[in-house]
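A quick aside before the break. I want you to see a complete sequence-to-structure record at least once, exactly as it would be stored in a machine-readable document. Don't worry about memorizing anything.
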Amino acid sequence: MRIREMEERDNQTMEQIIKRALESFNLNIPGTAYFDPQLSNLAQFYKEQPNAKYWVAMNEQDEVVGGVGIAPFGQKTGVCELQKLYITPEAQGKGLSKELMKVALDFAKEHYTHCYLETMKILQTANLLYTKLGFQQLERPLDGSEHSTMDAWYIKELG
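That is the input. The structure line, written in tokens, reads:
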């Protein structure tokens, strides 16, 4: 597996990966990333923001099989958000989420003091990974959250 920064040619593939993953958990509903306006233009969206990046993971056939992003969180100084960590079913169970998060968190440490993320309790594997990587669960979302359907929130001190 190879991880690189997302390019415009990856937009459609990542949009499909994200939508299929959400559909598989019946999360293709308002209040999730499924309806984010920037979903079909992720590469441009992350390039336009300060201290933001999106990475994609490539398999042996050089196909995009997942991705993750880091972007500023709302108006909170020093806080970024880990966003849109999604992987195709075929690529799951191989440590790819952990590798993508390592790249994202290394980048985040250079620009932020804390990393925030939102998820759903139903995504048990993801929740376990976040805890293993040192994220602390919060009782409620940080002010400024845009995904009202989420029911699990985490923060990690970087450094």
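Two observations worth writing down. The chain has a mean pLDDT of 94. The radius of gyration is 14 Å. We'll return to this after the break.
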